[in-house]
Protein backbone atom coordinates (compact mmCIF):
# COMPACT_ATOMS: atom_id res chain seq x y z
CA UNK A 1 0.00 0.00 0.00
CA UNK A 2 1.26 3.47 -0.94
CA UNK A 3 2.08 5.83 1.86
CA UNK A 4 0.20 9.10 1.72
CA UNK A 5 3.50 10.98 1.55
CA UNK A 6 4.34 9.37 -1.86
CA UNK A 7 1.11 10.53 -3.49
CA UNK A 8 0.85 14.22 -4.46
CA UNK A 9 -2.16 15.62 -2.68
CA UNK A 10 -5.00 17.71 -4.09
CA UNK A 11 -8.24 18.40 -2.30
CA UNK A 12 -10.19 17.55 -5.48
CA UNK A 13 -8.76 14.04 -5.58
CA UNK A 14 -9.37 10.95 -3.48
CA UNK A 15 -6.22 9.30 -2.11
CA UNK A 16 -5.08 6.50 -4.40
CA UNK A 17 -6.98 7.58 -7.54
CA UNK A 18 -5.24 8.02 -10.89
CA UNK A 19 -4.07 11.59 -11.47
CA UNK A 20 -6.94 13.85 -12.41
CA UNK A 21 -9.64 11.81 -10.67
CA UNK A 22 -10.18 9.33 -13.57
CA UNK A 23 -10.60 5.68 -12.70
CA UNK A 24 -9.13 4.57 -16.08
CA UNK A 25 -6.02 5.89 -17.77
CA UNK A 26 -6.51 8.07 -20.83
CA UNK A 27 -5.08 6.87 -24.13
CA UNK A 28 -3.33 10.04 -25.25
CA UNK A 29 -3.08 8.90 -28.89
CA UNK A 30 -6.47 7.14 -29.06
CA UNK A 31 -4.66 3.96 -30.04
CA UNK A 32 -7.67 1.68 -29.61
CA UNK A 33 -9.75 3.64 -32.10
CA UNK A 34 -6.88 3.86 -34.62
CA UNK A 35 -6.28 0.11 -34.55
CA UNK A 36 -9.77 -0.42 -36.01
CA UNK A 37 -9.98 2.59 -38.33
CA UNK A 38 -11.07 0.64 -41.44
CA UNK A 39 -14.80 0.13 -41.33
CA UNK A 40 -16.83 -2.60 -43.01
CA UNK A 41 -18.22 -1.16 -46.29
CA UNK A 42 -21.89 -0.27 -46.33
CA UNK A 43 -24.20 -2.49 -48.43
CA UNK A 44 -24.13 -1.41 -52.07
CA UNK A 45 -20.97 0.66 -51.69
CA UNK A 46 -18.64 0.62 -54.69
CA UNK A 47 -15.56 -1.51 -54.08
CA UNK A 48 -12.66 -1.42 -53.64
CA UNK A 49 -12.38 1.77 -51.61
CA UNK A 50 -9.19 3.66 -52.48
CA UNK A 51 -7.02 5.23 -49.77
CA UNK A 52 -3.74 7.05 -50.30
CA UNK A 53 -1.73 8.67 -47.50
CA UNK A 54 0.90 11.38 -47.68
CA UNK A 55 4.10 9.27 -47.50
CA UNK A 56 6.36 11.96 -45.85
CA UNK A 57 9.42 13.66 -47.35
CA UNK A 58 11.68 10.60 -47.03
CA UNK A 59 9.36 8.32 -49.03
CA UNK A 60 7.17 8.30 -52.14
CA UNK A 61 4.72 5.96 -53.85
CA UNK A 62 5.97 4.72 -57.26
CA UNK A 63 2.38 3.94 -58.27
CA UNK A 64 -0.98 5.59 -57.69
CA UNK A 65 -3.96 4.02 -56.00
CA UNK A 66 -5.86 4.37 -59.29
CA UNK A 67 -3.21 2.29 -61.05
CA UNK A 68 -3.60 -0.40 -58.40
CA UNK A 69 -7.37 -0.42 -58.92
CA UNK A 70 -6.87 -0.71 -62.68
CA UNK A 71 -4.44 -3.61 -62.12
CA UNK A 72 -7.03 -5.38 -60.00
CA UNK A 73 -9.57 -5.12 -62.83
CA UNK A 74 -6.99 -6.45 -65.30
CA UNK A 75 -6.71 -9.73 -63.36
CA UNK A 76 -9.03 -12.66 -64.20
CA UNK A 77 -12.71 -12.13 -63.43
CA UNK A 78 -13.56 -12.84 -59.81
CA UNK A 79 -10.03 -12.62 -58.45
CA UNK A 80 -10.65 -9.19 -56.94
CA UNK A 81 -14.15 -9.93 -55.64
CA UNK A 82 -14.30 -9.28 -51.92
CA UNK A 83 -11.32 -6.91 -51.71
CA UNK A 84 -12.77 -3.94 -49.83
CA UNK A 85 -9.83 -1.51 -49.72
CA UNK A 86 -6.63 -0.69 -51.56
CA UNK A 87 -4.48 1.41 -49.26
CA UNK A 88 -1.24 3.20 -50.12
CA UNK A 89 -0.29 3.64 -46.50
CA UNK A 90 2.22 5.95 -44.86
CA UNK A 91 4.92 3.89 -43.19
CA UNK A 92 4.45 3.85 -39.39
CA UNK A 93 7.48 4.77 -37.31
CA UNK A 94 7.65 1.22 -35.97
CA UNK A 95 8.18 -0.05 -39.55
CA UNK A 96 11.50 1.58 -40.37
CA UNK A 97 13.76 -1.36 -39.50
CA UNK A 98 15.66 -3.64 -41.82
CA UNK A 99 12.83 -6.19 -42.03
CA UNK A 100 9.97 -3.76 -42.60
CA UNK A 101 7.46 -5.01 -45.14
CA UNK A 102 6.74 -3.31 -48.44
CA UNK A 103 3.22 -4.76 -48.68
CA UNK A 104 0.64 -6.52 -46.54
CA UNK A 105 -2.74 -8.20 -46.81
CA UNK A 106 -5.13 -7.52 -43.93
CA UNK A 107 -8.43 -9.30 -43.41
CA UNK A 108 -11.05 -9.59 -40.72
CA UNK A 109 -14.07 -7.71 -39.34
CA UNK A 110 -15.63 -7.51 -42.79
CA UNK A 111 -12.61 -5.99 -44.57
CA UNK A 112 -9.99 -7.43 -46.93
CA UNK A 113 -7.28 -4.86 -47.57
CA UNK A 114 -4.25 -4.76 -49.89
CA UNK A 115 -1.68 -2.40 -48.36
CA UNK A 116 1.36 -1.01 -50.15
CA UNK A 117 4.02 0.99 -48.31
CA UNK A 118 6.16 3.74 -49.90
CA UNK A 119 9.70 3.61 -51.24
CA UNK A 120 12.62 5.73 -50.11
CA UNK A 121 13.36 8.78 -52.24
CA UNK A 122 16.95 7.63 -52.78
CA UNK A 123 15.49 4.91 -54.98
CA UNK A 124 17.39 2.00 -53.46
CA UNK A 125 16.59 -1.00 -51.30
CA UNK A 126 19.22 -2.05 -48.77
CA UNK A 127 19.79 -5.82 -48.90
CA UNK A 128 22.64 -6.31 -46.43
CA UNK A 129 26.35 -5.95 -45.78
CA UNK A 130 27.17 -9.32 -47.36
CA UNK A 131 26.72 -10.03 -51.05
CA UNK A 132 23.19 -11.48 -51.25
CA UNK A 133 22.54 -14.92 -52.67
CA UNK A 134 20.91 -14.90 -56.12
CA UNK A 135 17.70 -16.51 -54.83
CA UNK A 136 17.31 -13.75 -52.24
CA UNK A 137 17.37 -10.94 -54.81
CA UNK A 138 15.63 -12.79 -57.65
CA UNK A 139 12.32 -10.85 -57.17
CA UNK A 140 14.25 -7.59 -57.69
CA UNK A 141 16.43 -8.73 -60.59
CA UNK A 142 13.34 -10.02 -62.42
CA UNK A 143 12.20 -6.42 -62.74
CA UNK A 144 15.52 -5.08 -63.93
CA UNK A 145 17.11 -4.07 -60.63
CA UNK A 146 20.88 -3.90 -60.42
CA UNK A 147 22.55 -5.25 -57.29
CA UNK A 148 25.24 -2.72 -56.42
CA UNK A 149 27.78 -2.31 -53.64
CA UNK A 150 28.67 1.02 -52.10
CA UNK A 151 30.90 1.43 -49.06
CA UNK A 152 30.41 -2.19 -48.01
CA UNK A 153 26.62 -2.10 -48.36
CA UNK A 154 24.56 -3.91 -50.97
CA UNK A 155 21.53 -2.31 -52.62
CA UNK A 156 18.92 -3.16 -55.24
CA UNK A 157 18.66 -0.16 -57.58
CA UNK A 158 15.64 0.10 -59.90
CA UNK A 159 14.82 2.25 -62.88
CA UNK A 160 11.56 4.22 -62.65
CA UNK A 161 9.76 1.83 -65.01
CA UNK A 162 11.19 -1.25 -63.28
CA UNK A 163 10.15 -0.03 -59.85
CA UNK A 164 6.58 0.61 -61.04
CA UNK A 165 6.42 -2.93 -62.47
CA UNK A 166 7.84 -4.34 -59.23
CA UNK A 167 5.13 -2.64 -57.21
CA UNK A 168 2.23 -3.68 -59.45
CA UNK A 169 3.28 -7.07 -60.83
CA UNK A 170 5.03 -8.40 -57.73
CA UNK A 171 3.99 -6.62 -54.55
CA UNK A 172 0.38 -5.85 -55.41
CA UNK A 173 -0.33 -9.14 -57.18
CA UNK A 174 1.38 -11.10 -54.38
CA UNK A 175 -1.08 -9.67 -51.87
CA UNK A 176 -4.02 -10.29 -54.20
CA UNK A 177 -2.76 -13.87 -54.31
CA UNK A 178 -3.25 -14.08 -50.53
CA UNK A 179 -6.82 -12.91 -51.04
CA UNK A 180 -7.44 -15.52 -53.72
CA UNK A 181 -5.89 -18.24 -51.54
CA UNK A 182 -8.70 -18.37 -48.98
CA UNK A 183 -7.73 -21.74 -47.51
CA UNK A 184 -5.75 -22.15 -44.30
CA UNK A 185 -2.15 -23.03 -45.02
CA UNK A 186 1.11 -22.97 -43.20
CA UNK A 187 2.90 -19.63 -43.62
CA UNK A 188 5.47 -20.95 -46.09
CA UNK A 189 2.82 -22.60 -48.26
CA UNK A 190 0.79 -19.39 -48.30
CA UNK A 191 3.83 -17.36 -49.37
CA UNK A 192 4.68 -19.83 -52.13
CA UNK A 193 1.12 -19.67 -53.46
CA UNK A 194 1.15 -15.86 -53.46
CA UNK A 195 4.55 -15.77 -55.19
CA UNK A 196 3.35 -18.16 -57.89
CA UNK A 197 0.15 -16.16 -58.31
CA UNK A 198 2.16 -12.99 -58.93
CA UNK A 199 4.42 -14.76 -61.45
CA UNK A 200 1.44 -16.21 -63.33
CA UNK A 201 -0.97 -13.28 -63.36
CA UNK A 202 1.22 -10.22 -62.76
CA UNK A 203 2.10 -9.76 -66.48
CA UNK A 204 -1.60 -9.13 -67.19
CA UNK A 205 -1.32 -5.86 -65.29
CA UNK A 206 1.54 -4.47 -67.41
CA UNK A 207 -0.84 -2.81 -69.87
CA UNK A 208 -2.28 -0.47 -67.24
CA UNK A 209 1.06 1.11 -66.32
CA UNK A 210 0.78 4.02 -68.73
CA UNK A 211 0.62 6.85 -66.20
CA UNK A 212 3.91 8.84 -66.32
CA UNK A 213 6.19 8.41 -63.34
CA UNK A 214 5.91 11.04 -60.62
CA UNK A 215 7.16 11.29 -57.07
CA UNK A 216 10.58 11.06 -55.49
CA UNK A 217 13.89 10.99 -57.26
CA UNK A 218 15.32 7.66 -58.32
CA UNK A 219 18.90 8.92 -58.34
CA UNK A 220 21.19 6.80 -56.19
CA UNK A 221 22.27 8.55 -53.03
CA UNK A 222 26.01 9.14 -52.72
CA UNK A 223 28.18 8.91 -49.68
CA UNK A 224 28.29 6.53 -46.74
CA UNK A 225 25.12 7.69 -45.02
CA UNK A 226 24.27 6.35 -41.59
CA UNK A 227 20.83 5.48 -42.94
CA UNK A 228 21.32 2.38 -45.14
CA UNK A 229 18.12 2.98 -47.07
CA UNK A 230 14.79 1.22 -47.15
CA UNK A 231 15.27 -2.45 -46.34
CA UNK A 232 12.40 -4.86 -46.51
CA UNK A 233 11.15 -8.24 -47.44
CA UNK A 234 9.77 -8.42 -50.99
CA UNK A 235 6.29 -8.91 -49.55
CA UNK A 236 4.63 -9.86 -46.33
CA UNK A 237 1.30 -11.26 -45.30
How do the strands and helices of this protein lay out in sequence?
Layout lengths: L30 H5 L13 E4 L6 E2 L4 H10 L10 E4 L11 E2 L1 E6 L2 E6 L2 E2 L3 E5 L5 H8 L4 E5 L2 E5 L2 H21 L6 H15 L30 E2 L4
Parallel strand pairs: 1-3, 3-6, 4-11
Antiparallel strand pairs: 2-7, 5-6, 8-10, 9-10
Helix pairs in contact: 2-4, 4-5
Description of the molecule:
This protein is an alpha/beta fold. The protein is built from five helices and eleven strands. The chain has helices at residues 31-35, 65-74, 134-141, 160-180, 187-201; strands at residues 49-52, 59-60, 85-88, 100-101, 103-108, 111-116, 119-120, 124-128, 146-150, 153-157, 232-233. The strands form four sheets. A four-stranded mixed sheet has the order 1-3-6-5. A three-stranded antiparallel sheet has the order 8-10-9, with helices on one face. Helix 4 crosses helix 5. It is globular, with a radius of gyration of 22 Å. It starts with 30 loop residues before the first helix and ends with a strand.
Order of helices and strands: HEEHEEEEEEHEEHHE
Q: Give a count of the beta strands, DSSP E runs of length 2 or more.
A: 11
Major sheet = 4 strands, mixed
Give the amount of beta strand, in percent. 15-25%
Q: Report Rg.
A: 22 Å
Strand arrangement within the widest β-sheet reads 1-3-6-5
Distance from first to last alpha carbon? 47 Å
Mean pLDDT: 75
Number of helix segments?
A: 5
Provide the helix percentage.
10-25%
Low-confidence stretches: 9-36, 211-237
Protein structure class: alpha/beta
Based on Cα principal axes, name the global outline.
globular
Amino acid sequence: MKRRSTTPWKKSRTYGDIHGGRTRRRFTDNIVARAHSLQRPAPGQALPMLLQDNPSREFFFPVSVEECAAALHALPAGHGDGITHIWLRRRPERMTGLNASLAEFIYGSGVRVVVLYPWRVDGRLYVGRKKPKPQHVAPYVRFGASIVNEHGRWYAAFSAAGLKRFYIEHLFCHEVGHHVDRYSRRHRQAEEFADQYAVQWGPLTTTIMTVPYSGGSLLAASGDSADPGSAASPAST
